[in-house]
Amino acid sequence: MRKSFISGNIAIAEGAITAGMRFFAGYPITPASDIMEYLAERLPEIGGVVTQFEDEIASINAVVGASWAGVKSMTATSGPGFSLMLEALGLAVITETPLVVVDVMRAGPSTGVPTKTSQSDVMQVRYGAHGDYVIPVFAPWSAQEAYDLTIKAFNVAESLRTPVILLSDAVIAHLWESVLLAEPGEVEVINRKKPSSPPDEYLPYKPDNDLVPPMATFGEGYNVIVESLIHDERGFYRQDREAYRNLVKRIVNKVLSRVDSLFEVEAYYGDDYKCLLVSFGSTARSALAAARILRKSGIKAGLLRLKTLSPLKLETLRKYCDEAEKIFVVENNMGKLVHDVERAAENDKVISLPLLDLEIPEPKDIVEGVRKWL
Amino acid sequence: MVVSALESSHPLDKYLRTARLPHIWCPGCGLGIALGSIMRAIDKRIKEGTLKKENLVFVTGIGCSARTSFYVNFDAAHTLHGRAIAFATGAKLAKPELEVIVIGGDGDIAGIGGNHLLHAAKRNMDLIVLMITNFVYAMTGGQVAPTTPLGLYTTTTPHGNPEPPLNVVKVVSSLNANYVARASVTHPALVEQYVYKALGMRGFRFIEILSTCPEIFGRHIGMRDPFTLYSTLRSKVIVKQSPSIEESDLDWGKGFVIGEYLVRDNPGYLDRIGRGLK
Q1: Hey, what CATH class is A1-262 in?
Q2: Taking CB atoms and an 8 Å limit, are A64 and B90 in contact across chains?
Q3: Contact B79 A61 (CB under 8 A)
Q4: Chain A closest CA to B189's CA: distance in Å?
Q5: Contacts (Cβ under 8 Å, ≥6 apart) of A246
Q6: pLDDT tens profile B86-121
Q7: Complex ipTM value
Q8: What is the residue extent of each domain of chain B?
Q9: Pairing relation of β-strands B99-105 and B127-133?
C-alpha cells in the first residue's frame, strides 16, 4: 500500500486502474470531468485508451463495445449525462456486459446548478432505464471509500456480468484526503469467467449454476451474439413469454441472490441508540457530526450509513430500525431513500429530513431537524 | 430422388447462421443482394489471407438492415437504434486487430445516429460503415426517412414530405474519411468490389448502398411489384469511375451517380493514438 493525498475523483480513477480498467470513454461534464482528465494523462502510460466522444450516448455505447472486446471499461458523468446514458445502460443489462458508470451528482433538475452538490440521482441510477432490472449501486462517503468501492464495483461487474453504478457527488469529487492505494496483488481483482466449452458448443447466454454465463468476447473465434432483444441461451431473438421470463428473471435474480455480499452498511453508536439517523454519501459525514452533537446534549443518537443503495437488504435495515424509537432519513434531496426505509421500518417511526442544500449540509441543520421531533 | 434447391448448401453458407434462416426480409427486398455481395468480398479477403474470420465483427443498430447481425456467422452485435458506430468504435479501440463493420439503414446511420457518423468520419475512425439506403423507415411501417424524396407521401407525411433528402455521401466527404463510395443493389458486382477494397484500407470507410424496398417504399411510390422497383432503380443508376461530389445528389429525377467519390490513405485514428490499447 502507498499513501497518497488525492481528491475523490482521482481516487475513483485510481481505483479503476487498480481494478484493471483500460478503456475509458467520456464527455465533459461538471463535476465529473477531472476523472477523464486524470485518466487521459495516466491510462496511456499503462497501455490503456481514453477517448472523449461526441456525447454521453456515444461514450457509454463505446464502453459496452469495448467490454465486448474483452477490456474492462468505464465512463463517468453527472446527472444530465447519466440521463442520456440510460438507454445504453439497459443495453448493458440485457447483454450482460460488465462495466462501471460513475455518476458524480450535482443539483438538478435539468442543468440545475452544475458546480454544486446534491443527492437527487438516487432514483435515476437505480430505476431510470425502461424494462425490469436490478443493478448494484455503491455510494462512497470519503476519498478512500471512492477508491475501495470503485474496485468493488469492477469486481461485482465482472463476476456478475452486469453494469454497476458508483454514485458519488460534488463534495466527494473535490474532497482531498489521504488515501491508501494498493499495489498489484494487494487487493482482490476479479475477472469475468471465460467459457470452457469449444466454440461450436458454446451458448453465449447459458448460465452456470451461479446464474452467470461465461463470457466469450470478440476475436476469440466464438461467433458471439450481442443481442439487445429478448433472447434465449443461444442469443436468438424470442418473443414468447417463457424466454422473456427466463431472461428477465435470471438477470434480476443473479443480482438479488448476491444481496448479502452486495449490501454493506456501517453503524455508529450501533449498540446504544434510540434516535437513528440513516444517511449515505457525503451527507452521512454531516449526519455523523450531528449524531455526536446530539449525544453530547444527552440524546442517544446513532448513525446507519448505507454504502450500497441497490440491491437493499430490507431485513438488515429493519434490524437497525427496530432498535430505534425514531428514525431520521437524512439526505440531500427532497426525500428518496426515505421510501426504502419506510418499507423496512414501522411507518410512524420514520421521519424524512430532506435538506436540499447546495453545499455539504451543516450538522446544525440536521440537529435542528431532529430536535423538532423529540 | 429430387433434391430441392433449398436443401442443398450454398458456398457462402459457412458465413451464415443457417439455423436462423429463413430471414425476415420481405420478398423483393434488396438486403439479400447486398448481404450476398458483402459476403463474397469477405470470402475473397479470407481466401487470399488478408482477413482472419475470427477478427471480423459485425455491429448493427436497429432496423431491417440491422437484422444482418442475426444471420452472419461471425462475432456480431445487434445493439441500439443509432448507436452501432459508437459501440463499434469502442470495440475497435479496445482490440485494434478486429476488423469492425457497421451495417445499418439510412435512418439508423444518418438519422438517429447522424452525430456518431459525423464524429467517426471526423476522427477517421478505423471502421467500415455500410449504409443501406431504402428511402423510408420500413421496419416501423413506412414513415419519412432522412433520404425520402421531397414531396413524397409517407405515413407521417400524408401531405407530402416537406424536406429534401439528405445527401450522406456529400456530408461524409466533407469530413476526414479515407473512403467514400456509393453503390446500388442493382449493381451487385460493384457492391462487392467496393467492400473488398474498403476491407484493405485503414481509417473511416463509408459506402452507401442504394436498395429496393418494394413492400413499403414501393407502395409509397406506386411500385409495389419488386421487378418494377428494381428495374426502375437500375435505370436511374449512373456508374462513374471517379464521380465528383457535385454530382452526388440523391435525386430520383436526375438519377443516382454511383462510384468511388473519395479514396485516400490518411492516418486513421488508431495511427494517431499509437495503435491504441496495448
Answers
A1: alpha beta
A2: yes
A3: yes
A4: 27
A5: A232
A6: 999 999 999 999 999 999 999 999 999 999 999 999
A7: 0.97
A8: 25-270
A9: parallel
